[in-house]
Each structure stands twice: as C-alpha cells, then as structure tokens.
Design a protein that fits this description.
globular; 13-stranded mixed sheet; alpha+beta; 12 helices; binds zinc ion; three-stranded mixed sheet
C-alpha cells in the first residue's frame, strides 16, 4: 500500500518543487518505502496496529451502541447475556474481566451445588439442617420410625445378574440409581453412580477392612441391653434385613446406641488376618444424634443357629415388602459367648458409604448350619464389598 502511494506522491513532488528539494522528499519517501519491506520484522509492523483496532472493531460489530461505556461493563454484560463469551469478555482489559469471569464461574458452581444438595436432601432426610453446612464430616442421621431407610444395606433395587435378581424391582424404596456387587454397577463403580455416592470412591476411612496389626489393649466392655423383640424381615434387593422394634441398645464409653436393624452378608465383609468367614451379621445401632455404631458378628459353618432360624422362617415372599415375624427374637442369642472385640472407625459398606461409623467386630464367630447358610446363598450368592485400605487407621484389639 505504501509503495504505490509513495510513488504517486513522489512524482508530482519532483515535478513541482524541483530536483534538489524533490530529491530530499523522495529520499524521505524512499526511506519509508524501503524501510517497510526491509525492516527486520515486517510481520510486526503489520500486526502491531491490529490489537488496537480489532477489539474495537469487534465491539462495534457486536454492540454498536456500546462504544462509549468502559470496557469492563460491556464485558460484564456480554458475559451475563452470552454465558461467558471468551472473546468478548477477555479482549481489551484482561485483569478486570478475569475477576468477573471468576465471579461468574463461582455463580455457576454455586448453582450446580445447590441442585446437588437439593437432590441429596430428597434422597435421605429433608429435615436435617446439618447436611449442607458440613458436607465432609457429617453425622449419619435418620428420623425415628424411618430406620428401614438406613442404607445398610437397604437401597436401590440391584441389577445384578444372579438368579435371584434377574429383574429390576419396581423401586420399592423409591431409589432410582441401581448398584450391585458385580458388573458395571459393582463396587468399583459405586462412587461414580451418583454424587451422593462419592465417598465410596474418595473416602479415606472406608469399610470393610482386613483387620490385622491391631493395638492390643483392654477395651471397655460393650454393655448389651438386648431383650426378646418383635421384628420384620425384608428382602431389600441387597440383603435380608430384620427391622427390630425399639428397646434394644448397647452402651459403649458412656454412649447409648439403639439397635435399629440387622442384616447379613455372604461371605463375610470383615476379614481377620486375611481370613474371610462364610457369612456375617451386622447389627446397626444409632445414638441420639444419629451416629452409627455397627457390631459385626462373623459366622462360620457349624451348628444350627436357632435364633437366626427365626429370621429365615419369616422370609417374605416378595422383595421390598416387610414380613412381620410371629415369634419375637432374643438377640442375646446371636452374641458370642466371649465378648472381646476389635474396634476402628469406618463407613457404611454400601452406598452412600458414609463415614464416621464406629465398628466393633466380635472376635469369636457365631455358627450357622450348612443348610442355613445355603438358604441365604440361594438369595444372595455374594453380597460383600471388597476390603478397603486400612490407610494407617487406628485399630484397637481388645484382649
Ligand atoms: Zn452390612
């Protein structure tokens, strides 16, 4: 562009003003003319003016009415209206619009979190005010009378392919996300199935564990206050569970926990020095604040267990429906003769894998007959979560 222009200008100048003076001008023009193509950075001379011009051109094209207001307000509006359009927001004055971008991103994150929190409240307990404020370490609370909804391991109907569960249940408990003990929705995937299940993947104090290298100490004895009690049996799609009437409790370190329900796993979830047992029973208790304490009783094959037979006798004909037992159960009969136990802090062993659960694993196993174990395995061949890392946790081994 400079070349033809300067050539056109140079000629009349030479003619009108004479050779000597004209040569001077030509020299100037010539210098400019030769400078442009021969300068070390011709590309730079092309690009240099563009940052000044282009953003303004863009503004004019996109928002002709906003030439005058400061760039920051224009970019704010552009950001709000167009969901953070990077070109418009970031162009002319980066420092200011970055801060605003951050605000917008924060807003977006808050929106998404609010939606997730709302979903979580629906899932478990809408009344609890603690849920939102303490997302990381929150006590597990369940309203009185809704103990059956405690996800240990009540929960969604499974989609496992074992012979007992070929078809999905019609969601008897109102859950929409399926989890299982194998396949695509198995334990390795639990944490990804639902935001509320993240602890299953990210938690640092998960259960079950292989119990070993505990510190040998004298532990406070667990004070059992169990009485013959009415109960109802339910096949919740993950296990057989017995929901018991109020009135059974344990006291440990001065804290009283009420028994809510007990259920079964096959094989045992806990291991002791690597040894896995045929089955285990989990007795789930909660204190007045909703903290959970679970007593695990390992089961090995042996004699018929008369008390646990009462649970089998009351098996419901259909999944998801409670069957009341006509005979009360005395849970003292489930407890081993020797009450030494191992204790550690862990989690629910089923989604949502909530932590802060006090575990007490009885060291002496109970016995069930081969037939009794066989009855359970006809329904649940395998419903044990794999052992989780003990992560250097304190394990106290009562002597
Ligand atoms: Zn359990």
């Amino acid at each position: 562009m400079l070349a033809p222009l300067s050539a056109r200008l140079a000629k009349p100048l030479v003619l009108a003003l004479g050779l000597a003076w004209g040569m001077g001008v030509f020299a100037v023009e010539g210098r400019v003319q030769t400078e442009s193509p021969s300068t070390a950075a011709p590309a730079a001379s092309d690009d240099a003016p563009e940052p000044d011009i282009r953003p303004h051109l863009r503004e004019l094209i996109h928002k002709p009415e906003r030439r005058l207001p400061p760039v920051e307000s224009a970019s704010r509006e552009a950001g709000k209206g167009e969901k953070v359009k990077p070109g418009a927001a970031a162009a002319p004055s980066a420092p200011v619009s970055m801060a605003e971008l951050r605000d917008l991103i924060d807003e977006k994150i808050a929106e998404v979190r609010a939606k997730q929190a709302a979903a979580a409240v629906l899932k478990i307990e809408a009344k609890s005010p603690k849920r939102k404020s303490s997302a990381h370490v929150r006590p597990v609370t369940y309203p009185r009378g809704k103990e059956a909804s405690i996800p240990t391991p009540a929960g969604a109907p499974r989609v496992s392919s074992d012979k007992h569960g070929k078809h999905d249940l019609p969601e008897p408990l109102g859950h929409e996300v399926h989890w299982a003990y194998s396949g695509d929705t198995g334990p390795e995937s639990w944490g990804m199935l639902k935001p509320e299940y993240r602890q299953c993947m990210l938690g640092k104090r998960q259960s079950p564990i292989d119990i070993r290298d505990g510190i040998p100490v004298q532990l406070d004895p667990i004070q059992f206050d169990y009485h013959p009690t009415k109960f109802r049996v339910i096949d919740n799609g993950h296990t057989i569970q017995a929901n018991v009437d109020p009135g059974n409790s344990i006291t440990i370190l001065g804290k009283r926990y009420e028994l809510v329900q007990f259920h079964f796993h096959r094989p045992s979830e806990e291991r002791i020095n690597g040894k896995q047992y045929d089955m285990d029973v989990h007795l789930v208790h909660k204190d007045a604040e909703g903290h959970l304490a679970v007593i695990a009783i390992l089961v090995e094959q042996g004699n018929t267990h008369p008390a646990l037979q009462l649970v089998w006798n009351a098996l419901p004909l259909e999944k998801g429906i409670e069957q009341a037992s006509s005979v009360p159960i005395d849970l003292n009969q489930i407890l081993p003769e020797h009450k030494q136990y191992v204790t550690y802090m862990g989690s629910l062993t089923t989604p949502p894998c909530t932590e802060g659960v006090l575990w007490m694993v009885m060291k002496q196993p109970a016995q069930m007959s081969r037939e009794q174990i066989g009855i359970f395995s006809r329904m649940y061949q395998m419903n044990a979560r794999p052992v989780q890392s003990a992560q250097g946790r304190m394990i106290k081994d009562g002597q």
